[in-house]
């Protein structure tokens, strides 16, 4: 599979799906759901220029420190994590970590897929029989990216649906997801980047970005973090890639 990918005989999307499968990740387990990378950093331009390297996320860094200003906080947390995370660890049994949450978990999958069943029902069950408050819902792709850049506390990567399933961006079932506290905006369809004119257009351009020359040249760097040698040990510490 690796050689086929290197030879450009299979797409980046197909290679990531196969890697996830080999790593034991599956659509049948929300706790081990397939994980895909954030690949873009430009969610505000009117047009998306895939020939410009500046529109892409730095795939060599964990999402929590793609914004350089978060790196200092993350390093300090690793050095004195008990103080930061309020962990009770009198025996000193918990290994140090950079992030108290994970780039892929069941709640994160439900967060992204809240508008489609069975994930809507699963989300409601998780929230004791009701929708979570609107401000915590997945309501905007640009706002979600901005939140990642503003704080290293949320480190969710993406799921494969961002590259093929436009329906998850639409509230086709008409769920009442509430309204945002500050702006009073009703949470309905997911707000798209300016360069996407519809959910289908977003998926088309996002998939095109995944298969772009830039991502093809740098995807191995992200794979090292998630599936490769930077997951554990000194390489993970150096890469600011240690999870609780």
UniProtKB/TrEMBL annotation:
One of its GO terms (molecular function) is protein kinase binding. The keyword GTP-binding does not apply. The lineage of its organism: Eukaryota, Metazoa, Chordata, Craniata, Vertebrata. InterPro entries: BEACH_dom (IPR000409), BEACH_dom_sf (IPR036372), BEACH_Domain (IPR050865). Residues 1-244 form the BEACH domain. It comes from Agelaius phoeniceus. One of its GO terms (biological process) is intracellular protein localization. SMART domains: Beach (SM01026). Keywords: WD repeat. This is NBEL1 protein.
